Structures are given as structure tokens and as C-alpha cells.
Amino acid sequence: MNLVLLGPPGAGKGTLAARLVEEFGLVHLSTGDILREEVARGSKLGKLAEDYMDRGELVPDEVILGMVQERVDGETDGFLFDGFPRTIAQAEGLERILPVHLVVYLDLPEEEVVRRLSARRVCKQCGANYNLLTQPPGVPGKCDRCGGELYQRPDDREEVIRNRFRVYLEQSAPLVGYYEKKGLLRRVDASLSPDEIFRKVAEVLRG
Ligand code: AMP
């Protein structure tokens, strides 16, 4: 089974993905995580992507599709796509790579997106996500899992968050209708707690 997580930035895709990977043994493919690694390494791809990311704009489709194709590496099953596809062109490109069996749409309004993302902190070392309002670390500034330093993503500042939401509405929200027409979409209210969201999605996956 290949699963796509769709929804605005801050809806909880990363948090849900981590639990689904643990429980169902799927291979997590987050294009945002891959791009951040490339930026940190200072690779050619990272240099190309950095400007788009800092502005909250989308990295060009052909770059993303090339990157996904490389990671999928001829396998056709068992992937959890997080933050991809983000445009109809990416969704069409994905279909040429492998089939999508289920799309979970985490639905969240703009004000809640801004509230959550402004409070998001990420571990520099292991990538674990925290939220100063709802899921604070035990020790301020330190990761509970690995002790790594927590930081605020440069694109989690309010003006960039608002731009990311606008980009989401214009370019990614049409994917909801696209996958609905194909009968693949399951809508989940992302204002529920992480546990409730996980339970609902796990139920769907277990059939
Ligand atoms: P994310 O961690 O998913 O919020 O992604 C962070 C940033 O990486 C986005 O704001 C985009 O600039 C870029 N990005 C991640 N995934 C994609 C994608 N599928 N298509 C285009 N740009 C992407």
C-alpha cells in the first residue's frame, strides 16, 4: 500500500507520519525533510531549493519528481508520502512512478495553522517535532528523545507561514478534489489530538 498525507503546513503530517511508520512499517518519504538535509549539506540541490523554501514557495515540480524517483528507486510498494505531491503536476508525475492507494487529508483552518507553526520547534539532531503550546519538551530547548538542540525552522516565522498557506490554497488544495474524484480521499479533522488522528487513520489502514 502507498499512502499520501495531504493538508496545509502545520496540520500534523510529520507527527502522524512518524507514528504510521512505527506501526505499519511504511517507508517515510518527506520531500521537505529531504530538501532540508540537502540545504544543510550545501549540495547543488540544496542551494537551488533554499531560496524557494525561505520564501515559502514551492520548489519546481521537475526537481521534486526527480528527487522522489531517485529515492523510490524502482520499488513500487510500502511508501508514506508526506508533503508530496503538492501540485496536480506532481500527482500526475507520481502516478507514472507508482500507484497511490489512499490519501489522508488533514484539514485545518489558517488561524490554527499560524498558531501551531509559530509554536513549532524541531530537533536539530533527530528531526523530532515539538509544540511549545501543546507538546512542549520536558527540558526547554532540548529534545526528549536524543537530547539534541531544538530550533525554529526559518520558514516557521509568521509572514512566511502566511505565504505558505496562500501557496497551499492556490497550488495544493486542488489535490483534494483530484483525489476525491478518484475515490482515494479520507478527510480527517486535524484539530483533533495527535492520538485521535492516529486512531482514525489506523482504523482506515487496518480496513
Ligand atoms: P514541508 O517541510 O513539507 O513544509 O516543506 C518545506 C518547504 O520545502 C516547502 O515550503 C517548499 O518550499 C519545499 N517543498 C517540500 N515539499 C515540496 C514539494 N512536494 N513540492 C515543492 N516544494 C516542496
Total strand segments: 8
Report the sheet with the most strands, covering strand number, pairing sense and barrel closure.
5 strands, parallel
Overall pLDDT confidence: 95
Largest sheet, spatial ordering of strands: 2-3-1-4-8
Helix content: 40-55%
Total count of helical runs of at least 4 residues = 9
Spell out the CATH superfamily of the largest domain.
P-loop containing nucleotide triphosphate hydrolases
Percentage of residues in strands: 15-25%
How many domain units? 2
Low-confidence stretches: none
Structure, described:
This protein has 207 residues and is an alpha/beta fold. The protein folds into two domains: 3-109 and 161-206, Rossmann fold (3-Layer(aba) Sandwich), CATH 3.40.50.300; 119-156, no CATH class. Helix content is 49%, strand content 15%. The chain is built from nine helices and eight strands. The strands form two sheets. The protein has a five-stranded parallel sheet, sandwiched between helices. Helix 4 (61-72) runs parallel beside helix 5. It is globular. The site of adenosine monophosphate (AMP) has 17 residues, from helix 2 and helix 3.
